[in-house]
UniProtKB/TrEMBL annotation:
Transmembrane segments: 69-92, 130-151, 163-187
Region spans: Disordered: 1-48
Keyword entries, A-Z: Membrane, Transmembrane, Transmembrane helix
Superkingdom of source: Bacteria
Source species of the chain: Streptantibioticus silvisoli
Name of this chain's protein: Uncharacterized protein
Length: 207
């Protein structure tokens, strides 16, 4: 008895499904797979995963940019405060000046009149200007760092804020002024130390 094998044609658009699982493509590109037990498992395509990774990277970049803005702004304000203090004077410089003045008064009793003036007036004056110059120099360094960080080539636009650059430039200008004034005052360019005339010294009673 002859038997004829009848083969059912398979449509080329249909894909074989293994183990009773049925795969259904979704509209957004995700593949929804239905298993034998009726559970539906959705597999996200590679494009969706890449977009999620890019979004997370962008979020981290924005958070880093915000932190950089805060740090740069704080540094600019600190530089401006130091520069202003170098021009108007500092509490620390005043205290050290008064200390040097007291030391000069103590030691001036055993020195000539000219040396007494230098000890009681000149040394405290120069001490004040030294501290003013140090504050101005620190302000210049901090302001320069802020300006360099704000003008970086690879710096994102979200991390560059105009007011930070304005504050840093103000601190830089005030720092230069404070440093120049401190140097001129230290070297007695604006005004020299008081001196006792020679005639007054020679006519002073010797006791």
């Amino acid at each position: 008895m002859d038997t004829t094998n009848t083969e059912t044609p398979v449509d080329s658009d249909e894909k074989p499904v293994m183990d009773g699982a049925v795969s259904t493509p979704a509209e957004d590109g995700a593949v929804s797979t239905t298993a034998e037990d009726g559970a539906e498992v959705t597999e996200a395509p590679a494009d969706v995963e890449e977009e999620a990774a890019e979004a997370e990277l962008a979020s981290r970049s924005q958070a880093k940019a915000r932190s950089s803005v805060v740090a740069s702004g704080a540094a600019g304000l600190v530089a401006l405060g130091l520069a202003l203090a170098s021009v108007t004077g500092t509490w620390l410089g005043t205290i050290m000046s008064e200390r040097e003045q007291l030391i000069g008064q103590i030691s001036a009793q055993s020195h000539p009149t000219a040396n007494q003036i230098a000890l009681e007036f000149g040394t405290p004056w120069h001490t004040t200007e030294v501290f003013n110059g140090v504050f101005a120099l620190v302000a210049l360094l901090v302001a320069a760092v802020v300006l360099i960080s704000q003008t970086g080539v690879d710096r994102p636009a979200s991390a560059t804020v105009p007011w930070i650059r304005a504050v840093a430039w103000g601190a830089l200008i005030l720092g230069v002024i404070g440093l120049v004034v401190a140097g001129l005052m230290y070297f007695d360019v604006f005004t020299a130390l008081p001196h006792v005339p020679a005639a007054a010294t020679s006519s002073a009673p010797t006791g």
